[in-house]
Amino acid sequence: MNLNFTRTIVFLVTVLTGINYKSYSQVQNSKPIPVYASMEKGDSTWIAVEDLFHELRKSVNTSFQPVPANAFKGQGIFIGTTRLAKKLNIAVPAKLLTYGPEGIYIKGTENSVLIIGNTQYALQEAVFIYLEKLGFRYLLPGELWEEIPGLRTVYKKTEVLTEPDFDNRTIGNGHGYANSKKIESEFKAWEKANRMGGAFPVRNGHSYDQIVLDNAAFFRQHPEYFAQTVAKGSLPEGPKFNVANKDLVEFIAKNAVKRLDDFKKTGQHTLMVSMEPSDGGGFCTTAACKAIGTPSDQAYYLANRAAREVRKKYPDSWVGLYAYNEHILPTRFDLEPNVFVMITNGFNRSRYSTEELLGLWGKKTKKTGVYEYLHVYEGSMDMPGQMHIGNTKYLARSIKSFYKAGATTYVGESTMGWVSKAIGNYTLARLLWDVDADIEQIK
User: Fold this and answer.
1) How far apart (Å, rounded) are the C-alpha atoms in residues 403 and 388?
2) What does DSSP assign to residue 271?
3) Are 58 and 24 spatial neighbours (Cβ–Cβ below 8 Å)?
4) How confident is the model at residue 308 (pLDDT cuts 50, 70, 90)?
5) Residue range 224-243: average pLDDT?
6) What is the pLDDT of residue 12?
7) Strands 112-117 and 104-108
8) Cα end-to-end distance, the chain, whole Å
9) β-pairing, 318-325 with 272-274?
10) Strand ranges inside 163-216, DSSP E
11) Torsion over CA: 109, 113, 117, 123 (sign)
């Protein structure tokens, strides 16, 4: 379809329905706006400032002038961490100090705005909260679906004190982005504008396959390391491990540290390494393995050993797994303090609900989350009414229920097809920040 024709149709729809499509005032500012911050070009605070003015320039012809934070006298824009604000005797609510890394405080007047976050990461989220207060909206990925207000000033009387209810808020695209960098970048920009992400990035996808492939020559020489019967020199599909083999356990524990080393070398986060078994059923059935216990006991026995090894070099890092399929039930034993468990809301072979499983696993570990099947294309074929992501009442009910049961992280598996999932995606982003958000008002 011709793009101009498409835009015309969208414009007509927005006019007929009364939606403010885009309105630009392009007010001319003769002087750059002073931004008081402690930042260097390219650092996290600088990115927050750049994000703010990149969006403001869509409505107002303006630029910013960096000024040292300690020169702030109450006018202009101050962007900084809570620690910096306290150092400069800028008043912040006492409650902000009790919040986690994504705690945010914003106070706007007719000629100033304070944008304060407990971390630099929070500052990047805070600028989009302030933009929302100014009237900006990012409904779907792509500029076509942005709502840009007509502004006469970049200042607005407002006060916000907030932090997210979930410290991980992710939509995982099960089939990727059709090999399109443009589609991927637009979706990532939408995620950022709607404060998806979070201060606790998880890594708990199926890992056994990759461990074996990364060390293929080694495993070909050790068929005894597998739960399956394997000829020497070959590798099984969907490998499961013989967790009763002490040499295998030691190798896997040290390999977890090596994978974290590799993440660090390549600039990836080192907060978590996965020890989730390969997909599909099947676990070790030897007498020695059965003595260790159930499929859950076996998977988490190996994870516990890896977690102890990880703490030696990465004391703040976690080992992540799902509670899923055959290993969805809690273990007989307690878990190491740095083992993270994410319960799948599906493929549940137990007699317990997801909320009940959250409660049971919560007695074993410090931190739990939910992996939700928002839309599996092969299951619902994008049909209306067949997708969790298309049902805002389900989202509001389930997310609040998961949160009350103890979940603090959330990953929803979905697919592209942004229009069919637009209201769901947009609503989901707000519910994960505030489980009590009014979905009717959002819609």
Assistant:
1) 17
2) S
3) yes
4) very high
5) 94
6) 39
7) antiparallel
8) 28
9) parallel
10) 168-173
11) positive
Express each pLDDT in 356-372 by its tens digit. 999 999 999 999 999 99
Angle between helices 295-313 and 246-265 (to 10 degrees): 50
The token pair at 177 is 């982005």
Q: How far apart are CA 31 and CA 67, in angstroms?
A: 14
Q: Hunting for tokens 């070009």 — which residue is that?
A: 41
pTM: 0.89
User: What 8-state DSSP symbol labels residue 1?
Assistant: -
Q: Report the mean per-residue pLDDT for the chain.
A: 92
Q: Which helix (H) or strand (E) holds 34?
A: strand 33-37
Instruction: Look up residue 60 and give its amino acid.
Output: V
Note the residue count of the chain.
Answer: 443
The pLDDT-based confidence of 30 (bands split at 50, 70, 90) is low
Q: Compute φ and ψ for 244, nearest 5 degrees.
A: -85, -10
**Cα–Cα distance, 127 to 48 (Å, whole number):** 7
Angle at 341 between CA 339 and CA 342, to 5 degrees: 150
* Model confidence band, residue 385 (pLDDT cutoffs 50, 70, 90): confident
**Rounded to the nearest 5 degrees, what angle is found at the Cα of 245, between the Cα atoms of 244 and 247?**
145
Span 402-428, pLDDT tens digits: 999 999 999 999 988 878 899 999 999
d(CA 230, CA 87): 63
pLDDT digit string (tens) for 312-356? 999 999 999 999 999 999 999 999 999 999 999 998 989 999 999
Measured between alpha carbons, how far is 172 from 371 in angstroms, rounded to an integer?
A: 10
Sequence-ordered strand ranges (E) for 89-140: 104-108, 112-117, 137-138
CA dihedral 88, 89, 92, 98 (to 10 degrees): 80
Q: Calculate Rg over the CA atoms of the chain.
A: 25
Which residues are paired to 114 by β-bridges?
78, 107
- Calculate what percentage of the chain has a pLDDT beyond 70: 93
DSSP string, 251-298: HHHHHHHHHHHHHHHTT---SEEE-BPPSSS----SHHHHHH-SHHHH
CB-CB neighbours of 287 under 10 Å: 7
CA distance 243 to 22: 59
Residue type present at position 58: K
d(CA 163, CA 424): 21
Q: What is the pLDDT of residue 280?
A: 87
Q: Which residue has the tokens 């779907």?
A: 140
